[in-house]
Amino acid sequence: MRRPRIRSLRATLLAQMSALFVLGMIGLYWAASAYATLAADRSYDRLLAGSALAIAESLTVTPEGVRVDIPYSALDMLAAAPDDRMFYRVVAPDGRTVTGDADLPPIEAAAAEAPDGLGASERFFDTLYRGETVRFVVLGRESSNLAQKGWTWIQVGQTRNARQDLSRELLVQSLLPILLMTIVALGAVWVGIGRALRPLVRVRAALSARQPSDLSPLQTDVPDELRPIIEGINDFMGRLQGNIELLRNFIANTAHQLRTPLAALIVQLQMVERASEEDRRHGLAVANRSAKKLSRLIDQLLSDALIEHRSSLREIAEFDLKAVIASAVRETVSAMEDHDVRFASPLATAPMTGDRLVLEEAIKNVLHNALTHGTSDDPVEIALDSTETGYRLTVCDRGAGIPPDQLATVFDRFRRGSGNTLGAGLGLSIVRQAVDQHNGRVVLENRQGGGTCVTLELPT
Question: Looking at the whole model, is its pTM more than 0.85?
Fold first, then answer.
């Protein structure tokens, strides 16, 4: 699935911050709404309780019954809410309604809905009455008159219109500053993001001002969050610089190594043109040997460049080392005539993880050296065995061997052993590079009776 393209980091950050602010505003809205409702209830509950208390203070309990004279102040307290309707009643200890609306919710229902039951202090509750939600307060007064002993209840109710209007007003007044602060905060975030992204502009300017050949590390001062990006750019430019240096060295080495053989080949061909028939055959044979030497030199230069290039790629995969050796033997022997190669191994397969192409190039160079410097009468012996940590590959020939004083230097680039007039001195250097890339080891030894053994120790 293709990921959507991020067109603007600033817009992405602003969108995420805006979403966060919106969620915060929703949370603040619910909190402000609950607070506004609570504040409105507390304000009007005081008026409602004051009205019930004024009625309670006008109660008179006599042997004949409960008498009440509703004071004007009891009703005037609720006049601040002209859109609301008011209900009240007084219930005697015997359950009879002394005055007021007899169909109000019964005191038992009020006791059930009140959170702490009923008692001498007032209790508030909401209930549905005549199709509207009404806020009620119930206040009890206990009588000690033997004729009317018990509790007298005052019940006063009011619709919630004024409460809702006050709650809405408080909510709006609290949300307007929040909305204004959110807008200001988003503006500050927009400016802050712009300031935070300025180091990227400086990095771009520093890169744009450079010459194409300048691959030195960036020294631009950036915040800690951008430092991994600068380190990644510097690492990439360092690897690119290494590849360019590798290419330059390859071109220089190629030009240096090819100039002399090409000049000699041209001279030989010119001499063939002017030679007699008998000398021409000899000259063509010499030119043919020079062309083969030049071809081998080009192969080694390309192989050396390949090893250097793939060292930075690190293309690691699983393969069968035994199959790689067999392939290298086929390719090398097919290019050289009258040579015998014997490959022996007790292993059915040799699974390994590494760069197959690099190891195959190394093995072909070892084989080519053994076939070139060995004798045609004796076969080149190849053996593959397992070790505790990997494999041991040994290639032995019966040539003249290598002088002991040259064993330590034959792995250097363009360093040829004494008597080697065919190679460019790159074969063993290529082998060492390939083995080093696989954390292995190369051992070069002279054989008893003449010849050389090259051993590659490769961890799996």
Answer: no
